[in-house]
Amino acid sequence: MRQDSLESVVRDPCFLLNEGICNSNIDQTMLSILLFFHSASGASVVAIDNKIEQAMDLVKNHLMYAVREEVEILKEQIKELAEKNNQLERENNLLKNLASPEQLEKFQSRIPTDVTGSAV
After folding, report:
1. Pfam families, from UniProt (predicted)?
2. Which of 11, 60, 86, 96 has its CA 20 to 30 A from that of 105?
3. How far is CA 100 from CA 74, 90, 97, 103, in A?
4. Is 51 exposed, middle or buried (0-12, 13-18, 19+ CB in 10 A)?
5. Which DSSP state fits 44?
6. What is the distance, to the nearest Å, from the Cα of residue 70 to the centroid of all Cα atoms in its chain?
7. Are 35 and 54 in contact (CB under 8 A)?
8. 30-36 average pLDDT score
């Protein structure tokens, strides 16, 4: 494999994934590293230390990309959960306002004592 054919893989962490060659970031990273080291068999061999450093940079780029993706997913989940929590709090307040004092008293008597301290 020619050295210049790996440039797009090294420059863009998503290249193999976008080209449909790999199904996941881990597959893509491993394939990129293998291709990268395989290219060292040509006439223009770079020192092994440089190859290792470049491979580590490649792994770092792939991991950072994967972490950013995961962070975005988690941010969206947090947003959805916060919205759901707000909706439930509004429903809870509405039900408290609509309930009679007798209903509230009956409800409070059913809640275990360790929960009542943190419930309201």
Report:
1. TSC22
2. 86
3. 40, 18, 8, 5
4. middle
5. S
6. 1
7. no
8. 68
